[in-house]
Amino acid sequence: MPQHLPVLAVTSGEPAGIGPDLCLQLALHHPLPARLVVVGDPMLLAERAALLGLDIRFAELKRGQPVPEATPGVLSVWPVSLREPCHPGRLAEANADYVLETLDVAVAACLDGHADGMVTAPLHKGVIIDAGHAGFRGHTEYLRDACGVDEVVMMLATDSALHGERPGWQGSTALRVALATTHLPLSEVAGAISGSGLARILRILQADLTRWFGIAAPRIAVCGLNPHAGEGGHLGREEIEVIEPCLERLRGEGMMLEGPLPADTLFTPRHLAGVDAVLAMYHDQGLPVLKYAGFGRAANITLGLPIVRTSVDHGTALDLAGHGLADPGSLQVAVALAAQMACRGAVAPN
Q1: What is the C-alpha to C-alpha distance for residues 257 and 133, in angstroms, rounded to an integer?
Q2: According to the model, what pLDDT value does residue 159 have?
Q3: Alpha-carbon distance 337 to 277, whole Å?
C-alpha cells in the first residue's frame, strides 16, 4: 500500500453539463481517499461556482508539480482552456476539442507517472461527433486508442460491491456487470460477437478482477445473446455455435464460467449467488439491471488499460447544469473505486 494518498486526475467532462458542478462538489466532500486534481478550465469552474453560490478557491498546478492533499473549499486544477465561453445547458461544438484535450491530459499524466489514475465526468458523444469526430464512440473506445491497447472491457459496479457485499445475498444490490459489446446499434451486436472476441474479453475480465479487485479465482456468469439463451437453437444459434464453444475452451484453461444463461433469469439471487461478475452481450442487456439496483451509486470501470480509469454511471444532464441539483454520489463512488484500484495496483504483480 502506498505511504501517501494516490493522485487522481478528474476530467470535468462536457462543460455545458453537470460535470463542472460535480467536480466543484468534490471540494466540499471530506475526507477524500485520494489527492484530486481537476482537469478543466479554471475560469469555467470559477463561473460555475459563483452561479451555484459555492465558496471555492482554485489552485492551478503544472503537471509534475506535487498535488496536495485535499483541503476543504480548495480545488486543485490542471488548466485546459475552453475554445469558447460556455453556458450551462447549451452545447457548443467548438468545445468538443476541449473535452478531448482534458482526456489527453489525464491519460498522459497517468502514463507519465504524474497521476495514479483518472476519473471522468460525463461527456456528450453527440456534440463531439457533430464537431467532426465521426468515429467517436465514447470514453471507453477513446481511452483504448489513447493507451494503444487492442481490447478493453467496460464494467459497471454498484457501491455495495465495493464494500464487500456479494451478489445474490438476500436484499443485496451488489453487482458487477461487464459488456461483450459497448456502444453499438442493436442491429450490429450479433455480428460483433465472435468466439475469439469473447475469449479476449473474458480473459481481460478475469485478470482485472484479480488485479484490481483482489478476487483470486473469479466466478463469471455469462448471458446468452438471444431470449431464453436461444431455446436450444429455436430462437437463435449464437449460443450453440459461438458462446458455448468459447466457454468450454476457457473452462479447459481453468476459468470458472457459468452459462450461457438466459438474461431474464440470470439477474436473480439464486443465479447470482457466489458470482463475482456478469458478462452481458450488449449494453442494454445488462446495464438497466445494474442501474435499477444502484443508479447514482455505481461506477464505470475500463478494464484492460495500463492505467486506472473509472467514471460516473450517468450522462451530462444538461437540464440540471448550473441549478445546484446534480447528485455527486456516482462521482464519489468513482473516486473511491479509483483510489482502491490505484492502491491495489501499486502492490500487485504485473
Answers
A1: 38
A2: 81
A3: 16
